[in-house]
Amino acid sequence: MDLERKKGNYPCGILNYELGYHFIEGLDLESSPLKEGTSLLHITIFQNKKRFKYKNPHPKVETSVSISNPKPKWTKDEYTKQWNKTLEYLKLGESYELNLCFPVELQINGDLFSFYQNLKAKQKTKFSVFYPYERKNKTIVSLSPELFFEVQGEIITTEPMKGTIVRGNTREDDQKNFLHLQTSEKERAENVMITDLYRNDLGRIAKQGTVEVEELFSIRGLSTVWQMVSKVTAKLDKPFSWNTVLSSLFPSGSVIGAPKRNSYELLRSLEVGNRGVYTGVFFTSEETNHVPWIRASVTIRTLETDSIGETHNAVYGIGSGVTVLSTPKEEYEECLSKLKVLTSPIPPNFQILETLKLSNGKIFLKEHHGNRIESTAKRFGFSFSKTKLEDTFHKIETEVTGKVRIRLLLDEEGNFHWESTSLPKRSIRASISLGFAKEPINSDDVFLYHKTTNRSVYNQLTEDCKGLGIDDCILFDKDGRVLETTIRNLFYKEKGKWYTPSLDTGGLPGVFRERLLQKNWVKVKPTSKDDLLNAEAILVGNSVRGFERVTLIIR
Predict the structure, then answer these.
(1) Which of 77, 79, 202, 538 counts the highest number of beta carbons within 10 A?
(2) Which pLDDT does position 417 carry in this prediction?
(3) β 546-552/431-436 pair status
(4) Is 462 strand, coil or helix?
(5) Across 61-65, 157-161, 433-437, 498-502, which has the greatest mean pLDDT?
(6) Is there a contact between 521 and 403 (Cβ–Cβ < 8 Å)?
(7) What are phi and psi of 497, to 5 degrees?
């Protein structure tokens, strides 16, 4: 590979996890438990390279690709049995951490590249790969978020990833999960262990005194999970060569544990089988003017597929790091959370939306709107610049006159667009008719918690309301808890005090509602339909319309 790169070619490919028997000091392939013929690597030498810059691909029609229910090799009970063995090894001091993994089998029907495009639409990662083997029936599909190493000239960068928790639907739950991961003693212990392992590994191939931890315990958001990441850099002592670097680093400590050799052997006895492509490495390499550029990702979130026509049998590995601070329930749930990217629905193309009220050259509740659009951008992985937002707000306030409604949009690339509509004058407070929706909302739909142009659920509910002859309808969850209306937040009076429903199970927390809560004019309360039926008064409101009176219609 070194020779081909220096000749101006472009080697790239897969190094399977089992290649660790060759590169880990003290192990060798001849005495390993691997069967003769076990696949260890697949490399392609390309003579040319083309670069394409494109937006995140639009998924094809969802029905064109289907996935069967994934079947984990281990049930919760089977995992717990292996977890208990793992814990015993840890207690005996055989290892400080073991990354226990198991495969999930599934079947994909349809065009495999379309499936890959759909996955990319669901989760944006830096190291996504669609890699067909020379044998046309085998393909690797990877959405890896983890950099194994990158070499540019003499600088080598690694980003060990350790620590995972699912994203929350609401801003509060998402932040709660973020803080839980950030402060988790168990997750930080895992991360610092692997970071130290990388420091030591890099120290074997680096110039003295150049190994540096640039980031420790950084939290990065993917669409389905939060990940804890650290960053370690160094200057190579000698010009890059594959044998030297892999002998020091491969496989990634983040997918094994520490110490590396003992942990690798223990995991083989616990997992009873080959991992194959999973937790190995995918790499690309090139060289310009004698300066190498190598990028390698750890092949997690990766499918290994065998195809017959448009039927693809796939294996998807999942796992997590076990320490003495772990619990089997928590670890098994973390493993299954990594399946979410496969099973979650494909998001529609959408933009982030804020509806603003401008009057006398000022945007009402501007700071609240700005905070919400930034929070939503972070939740969905949109590019966001506070400077661009402030410039847009300034442009609106200086260019638009009168009393208007502003529809502000943020696209995925971080560009703002807006349009204005005049607001009619009102001499008296408006009154609207309200009724209950026909059926409960789906509390698992993340779009019900954030303001975007994907309002299909709300639009359908609004049409249903109009069909019943009412202006708006009250949403509720499967347990009958009242939430909000399709475009307004609810407020009701009980025993002389004002309340607003809890939106933990669905519903958009409006900035007008947030302002009232900050002023302590209303309080959050889990609300039933009876609470509304027996209320002394009911109002609805949002930042554009303000308060509106309500006539409650029961059918």
Answers:
(1) 202
(2) 95
(3) parallel
(4) helix
(5) 498-502
(6) no
(7) -120, 150
Which tokens sit at 106?
A: 């599934």
The encoded tokens of residue 340 equal: 């979410």
Strands 352-359 and 416-422: unpaired
Task: Phi first, then psi: give them for residue 261, nearest 5 degrees.
Answer: -65, -50
H helical segments located in 223-325: 242-249, 260-271
Helix (H), strand (E) at residue 379: helix 366-380
Whether the predicted pLDDT of 121 surpasses 90: no
| Phi, psi at 226, each rounded to 5° | -95, 140
What whole-number distance in Å separates Cα of residue 482 and Cα of residue 478?
10
| Spatial CA neighbour of 87 closest among 330, 404, 397, 316 | 330
Cα-to-chain-centroid distance, residue 368: 25
52 alpha carbon, distance to own chain's centre: 24
Q: Can you count the helices (H) and strands (E) in the chain? A: 15, 29
Give CA–CA dist 229/146, Å, rounded: 9
Taking the C-alpha atoms of residue 313 and residue 497, their distance in angstroms, rounded to an integer, is 60
Please name the helix (run of DSSP H) or strand (run of DSSP E) that holds residue 304, with its range, or none: strand 302-308
Provide the Cα torsion 150, 152, 154, 155; round to 10°: -50
Q: Taking the CB of residue 137, how many other CB atoms lie within 10 A of it?
A: 13
Lookup: tokens for 18: 């089992």
Sign (positive/negative) of CA torsion 81, 329, 446, 448? positive
Q: List the beta bridge partners of residue 452.
A: 352
Give the pairing of strands 138-144 and 302-308: antiparallel
Query: What is the spatial distance between Cα 267 and Cα 439, in angstroms, rounded to a whole number?
Result: 49
pTM for this entry: 0.79
How far is residue 138's CA from residue 83's CA, in Å, rounded to a whole number?
Answer: 32
- What's the average model confidence in pLDDT over 427-456? 87
Q: How far apart are CA 295 and CA 126, in angstroms?
A: 11
Tokens describing residue 492: 């009701």
Q: How far is CA 405 from the centre of its chain?
A: 33
With H, G, I as helix, E, B as strand and everything else as coil, classify residue 482.
strand
